[in-house]
Amino acid sequence: MLGADALPNARETFDRQLSNTEREVVGLTEAMPAEKFNFAPTNGLFTGVRTFGLEARHIAFEINTVASAMLGEPIPGQDHDNGPDNLTSKDDIVKYLKDAFAHAHRAVATLTNANLMEVTTDPFNPKGKSPRVASVGIFFWHTYDHYGQMVEYLRMNGIKPPASR
């Protein structure tokens, strides 16, 4: 809560939101048994969808991409947006996801109330520019888009998501 005269602090506000997102997504990822990380739905129009493990890797890859852009680091290059192909075990994927959130926290730590509209490299178009506040928003809307899919994957496997317990 803010005092009567205190201005909201961008870094603290976004870092708190990122911590909440991290808790939800990492907890959900850890809740899926290792033998189910290759699960993808098949009953319906699910041809070509990501497996549970690929969803988690994709989230981490995109978080790293946005954090790199915000920090002025080279954007991770790859033939696709599912993260490193050599990460196949639950332990490796969970570590990759946790490391991506740590990278995002470093990027959020650069935010100030004064620099939110400053432009950095557009995370998805290295020749373009994007305001910091738009980039940080991707951490949330993109992650929760895939989080919602992962929730359904858990439920399809008879597992109640941690946030619903």
Describe the structure.
- By secondary structure, the chain is mainly α.
- It is 52% helix and 7% strand.
- A two-stranded antiparallel ribbon has the order 1-2.
- The chain is globular and about 50 Å long.
- The model has no long low-confidence stretch (mean pLDDT 94).
Layout of secondary structure:
Blueprint: H1 10-31, H2 52-71, H3 90-108, E1 119-122, E2 125-131, H4 132-156
Antiparallel strand pairs: 1-2
Helix pairs in contact: 1-3, 1-4, 2-3, 2-4
Name the descriptors:
two-stranded antiparallel sheet, mainly alpha, 52% helix, 165 residues, globular
Into which percentage range does the β-strand content fall? 5-15%
Radius of gyration: 17 Å
Q: What is the strand arrangement across the widest sheet?
A: 1-2
Number of E strands: 2
Summarize the structure.
This protein is mainly alpha-helical. Helix content is about 50%, strand content about 5%.
